[in-house]
Amino acid sequence: MARQPRLEFEGAIYHVINRGNYRKNLFGEKGAAEAFERALSEACEKCGWVVHAYVLMSNHYHLALETPEANLVQGMAWLQGTFANRFNRFHGERGHVFQSRYQSILIEEGRPLLGLVDYIHLNPVRAGLLALPNLGHHTFSSYPKFFRKHPPDGLCRARFLESLEFPDSVRGMRKYAQHLETVEERDPARHDELIRRYCTGWAVASAEYRRGIKKMYAGVSEKAGWQGGAVRMLREAKWESELAALLRKARKSRKEIAASAKSAEWKVRIAREMKRRTTATNPWLAEVLNMGHPSRVCNLINGI
């Protein structure tokens, strides 16, 4: 099956996640966590990456990773490949170290990034490994390193502290520790909600940000076998581009979509043309053209 696409552009921020093969206790192996941290530091130097937060758990990792250059795929191939080679060589093993392809979810700067940083730093607490006051004892995380006067190269605390209007300093991190006390919750339902928000889909972002990304990718060619949230976004980007062209041709505006009847003849014409030119679905057309239930779109297009 063809691989899913990666969304890459200069300045992109991602939540990158991957698990050890067979969910094994990968980072509990002797020297494994240290080796991953070294490889991550080297990847930052080679690729110019900026890491806003990271944590290594027993069998998986989370990164809040920014790519000033559009080089996520290249850098992640180097990072995971280098770590796997070093791990296998040290432990006398062969084969895959990670379970599957890593997830990469786009994150908008500002509050979405701050929320992700909080989510990553609180992972050990929510996993029951330690209490919040002892969070700094989880060694393999950016959290304790951000309490240094000068964090290691590649790590950046300035941007998420700025979102809270805290200074980029140890004093700012002390205020950030107090902030974490306000966002930590023991409610399992809330935890599940955070997992859905930060670990699924293709982006954690505002509608405006999503529209900008869709516009950027409107001309990208889709390959057979692509699937998943990013692919749905690419398809919708193409549909929106085609819809905009048809609206211009019909001399209609977005405002007229909401103001006109659901079964307006010009809407039916556009919907019919969208079905002819694209793979746009009835639910998508029903929503963007304000035509009611998807089955109604089908009936109108077919003249029923």
Fold and architecture overview:
The structure is a single chain. The chain is α+β, with helices and mostly antiparallel strands and 304 residues long. It has 2 domains: 12-204, Alpha-Beta Plaits (2-Layer Sandwich), CATH 3.30.70.1290; 228-301, no CATH class. Helix content is 50%, strand content 10%. It has 14 helices and 5 strands. β2 and β3 (60-67) form a beta hairpin. α1 (32-47) runs antiparallel to α2, α9 crosses α10 (229-250) and α13 (282-288) packs across α14. It is elongated and about 70 Å long.
Question: How many H/I helical runs?
Answer: 14
Strand order of the largest sheet: 2-3-1-4-5
CATH fold topology of the largest domain:
Alpha-Beta Plaits
Q: Calculate Rg over CA atoms.
A: 23 Å
Report the sheet with the most strands, covering strand number, pairing sense and barrel closure.
5 strands, mixed
**Low-confidence parts:** none
- Structure classification: alpha+beta
As for the number of domains, it is: 2
Secondary structure blueprint with pairings:
Blueprint: E1 12-19, H1 32-47, E2 50-56, E3 60-67, H2 72-91, E4 103-107, H3 111-121, H4 123-126, H5 142-145, H6 158-163, H7 170-183, H8 188-199, E5 203-204, H9 207-216, H10 229-250, H11 254-259, H12 265-277, H13 282-288, H14 294-301
Parallel strand pairs: 4-5
Antiparallel strand pairs: 1-3, 1-4, 2-3
Quick overview of this protein structure:
With 304 residues, this protein is of the alpha+beta class.
